[in-house]
Write a structure and sequence with these properties.
By secondary structure, this protein is of the alpha/beta class. It has 5 helices and 4 strands; from the N terminus they run βαβααβαβα. It has one domain: Response regulator (Rossmann fold, 3-Layer(aba) Sandwich). Helix 1 packs across helix 5 and helix 2 packs across helix 5. It is globular.
Amino acid sequence: MPVSVLIVCLGNICRSPIGEAVLRHVAKERGIKITVDSAGTSNYHIGESPDDRAVSICLKFDVRIHHAARQVSTEDFRSFTHILAADEANLRNLHRSKPRDSTAVVRLWGSYLDNPEPIADPYYGGIDGFEEVFQQCVRLSHAFLDEVIGKE
């Protein structure tokens, strides 16, 4: 089964759309075919575009970002091979909503690093927080691909 990943945060307008864009970009650079999407555990921003600061930071690094916010669905647990949470609160919410017939690996995205780390929500801060999230997503993308696909 080809690798397919759903990156999840709370509202799906900051961390997870950055993560989606970065993971897709890093995989493409490494010549890895992968399906990537993102979603939120809440319904706060359904249909909205990513936060302007998320778009700005991705453009700064020539990473394409285009997404309409959506909420995690029951079907996601069957259609994705991996569902990766931005932080522990979202991981707990995913485990609470995970159906019995789930086939997805559900983990904290930061758990692929030697020193696991959550992705802090940059929403209430400035552009620097978004750049930190972007750089963290680059590290997490490589760590995830190294473990799941293998090192080149």
